[in-house]
Amino acid sequence: DQQVKQNSPSLSVQEGRISILNCDYTNSMFDYFLWYKKYPAEGPTFLISISSIKDKNEDGRFTVFLNKSAKHLSLHIVPSQPGDSAVYFCAASDYNNAGNMLTFGGGTRLMVKP
Amino acid sequence: KAGVTQTPRYLIKTRGQQVTLSCSPISGHRSVSWYQQTPGQGLQFLFEYFSETQRNKGNFPGRFSGRQFSNSRSEMNVSTLELGDSALYLCASSSGGWNTGELFFGEGSRLTVL
Questions:
Q1: Average pLDDT, integer, range A34-54
Q2: Residue A61 confidence (pLDDT) above 60
Q3: How far apart are CA A50 and CA B96, in angstroms?
Q4: Strands B109-113, B10-13: pairing kind
Q5: How many Å apart are CA B107 and CA A47, to the nearest integer?
Q6: Which of A100, A103, A104 to mutate to test the interface with B (most CBs of B within 10 A)?
Q7: Dist. CA A46–CA A34, nearest whole Å
Q8: Which residues in B1-114 belong to E strands, given as ranges?
Q9: B60: helix, coil or strand?
Q10: A99 and chain B: CB distance < 8 Å anywhere?
Q11: Distance of alpha carbon B96 from alpha carbon A100, whole angstroms
């Protein structure tokens, strides 16, 4: 049973427009959420995170929104650039769980067309 | 400073064999986690080591094992390989804080089981 789901395996967006990547979770114990970006032949790299005490976190062109009641989070990229083309993974952790254990979604491949 | 280093990058094994993968974390990082990435499944947590002790373990059979050395380097071993073990195995390190969430990933070891 996947506790973190990214229902869109791929997304295509025109350069300069907004990219919205979605993620749903089922485990109500999750209280910290992260987005990672992965280019081919490279390991995932941390992008942005949000704690459950917030509903929005912004870092430059990247904004993550959290809707706890819906158990849903989204990543907005504005404006989208061709270099943003990558696979994006949503991840979640339970702060009460000792150590660093992340539960990842299946990923969404974003393609930004010039 | 140098990133997370994983060796070997690529390897091919046959069913029934065993394999050992190695990971050198970022200098000063004491937590090492291992993840398995297969198409459509995202990243699945295998285990995490901190100061030579397994701190968390994912839902994988006992054929998957790991260890961490006093210099924080880690190895994972898969015995009696099965076709389904073909995957990208990613190692991630962090400073070891309590669920800091931000992991630094290596480029992975791609295992093919024939």
A1: 93
A2: yes
A3: 19
A4: parallel
A5: 17
A6: A100
A7: 8
A8: 5-7, 10-13, 19-24, 31-38, 42-50, 53-57, 64-68, 74-78, 87-94, 104-105, 109-113
A9: coil
A10: yes
A11: 7
Residue that wins the pLDDT comparison between A80 and B51: A80
Q: Closest residue of A to B34, CA-based?
A: A101
Q: What is the pLDDT of residue B41?
A: 75
From B56, B90, B92, residue closest to A98, measured CB to CB: B56
Q: Which has the closest alpha carbon to B93: B22, B5, B6, B29? A: B29
- Residues, chain A, total? 114
Reported as a single tens digit per residue, the pLDDT across B22-77 is 999 999 999 999 999 987 678 999 999 998 999 889 999 999 999 999 999 999 99
Which residues in chain A have Cβ-Cβ distances shorter than 8 Å to B102?
34, 46, 49
Alpha-carbon distance B14 to B33, whole Å?
25
Which pLDDT belongs to residue B100?
A: 60
pLDDT tens, residue by residue, B76-114: 999 999 999 999 999 999 886 655 668 999 999 999 999
